Amino acid sequence: MGAEAGGFSTRQVHVGSDAVPATPRALPIHLTAGFTFSDFEEAAAHFGAGDGFGYTRTGNPTVSAVESKLASLEGGAEALLVASGQAAVSVVILGLVSSGGHIVSSTHIYEGTRGLLLDNFSRLGIEVDFVDDIGDPDAWRAAIRPETRLLLAESIANARNDVLDVAAIAQVADEHGIPLVVDNTFATPYLLRPIEHGAAIVVHSASKFLAGQGAVLGGVIVDDGRFDAARAGDLFPQLTAPTRTGDPAPWERHGGRARIAYLRETVAPRFGPTPSPLTAFLIGQGIETLSLRVERQSANALAVARWLESRPEVASVDHAGLPSHPSYDTARRYLEGGYGSVFAVTLHGGLAAARAAVNTFEVITHMTHLGDVRSLVLHPASTSHTQRTEAEQRALGVHPGTLRLSIGIEALDDLLADLTRALEAAAAARSVESAGAGA
Ligand SMILES: *Cc1c(COP(=O)(O)O)cnc(C)c1O
Hints:
The chain has 439 residues and is of the alpha/beta class.
């Protein structure tokens, strides 16, 4: 409307609210709660067939652009962006598992996911069993029950750096007509695309490598688009039976994309973990440099891991790119272009050594995050894994002297110099400790 017409309060909301049409090079940030309808019919078509954009909780062009980028990079049919990695896992489970249902999960998963399963979904009547030997298909088979609705694992697991044999476990899921859901946060689609190896669904914490600079939180769900109603039988009536209002089932309307369509239409917008369009933009910007960052981070991390393995202060290094790692062969088979940048190193001298090292780092930042362009360090036993018993920590590869490193893009020499000082501090603390103990 014109700049002169109307009262102050009318002009303050209407003047200048429509931008001049132009063609920006960068993805436009549609930071808006909703979208205007050009006429009566357009509104009806939106609410009826779901055409176009109406309200940002159900769809937004900026969010949708980033979703198509992620679907393409993961080799999936369609992606759904949500507010965090936790939201991505939650939405998948809320969509595919009902009360009385059951999940089989790798025990080597993010502690937040484990808490979600044990504290939150258990209260909704969803049970979980954990598999320790995730490389053994029979261990997964043995845990599956008639109520099992999905298998869950991470492509590269924290802290032991175990790499999932995606094809073998996807086959177990297939035998039962249920999806394998892979949290691909640590590998990123640049190194591994689980859908190409038979996984049905991939989730990510986009807060990590995808965004890449530690500025925003986000999550994504990517579906393979190969849902098969005949194969699934009566396991997922929410996908194969007519809706509450008598509309055709998601399977009738969306075919192989029934799962992701149901999550998009009926789960994510109802529970409401909507990503901000501004966040989506930042994740999209991050992804544009994903290959360059991950290539450099992986090369740096492997060089750091090899260097650490040769140091006298170090008891062990859990990095899947080292021939000493139990997952080395699997990693070589599945990971292309690098082994990722997050791994664990265990120092001689336990807690005292770990504390001294953490307090000495200057280039490497001490915080609970990973996948950043900056190198990061965390002491899992006193932070992320503090809820676990000592025996559980040991089984997960978390010892008092263990540090988790997430290597960034810095100059390798600067990282090794920082690590040298930290290891010297660790060795000094260790000798003080043993002298104090009268050893
Ligand atoms: C961080 C992380 C999550 C949780 O993601 P948020 O974005 O922090 O909610 C889930 N899985 C893995 C492997 C993670 O590293």
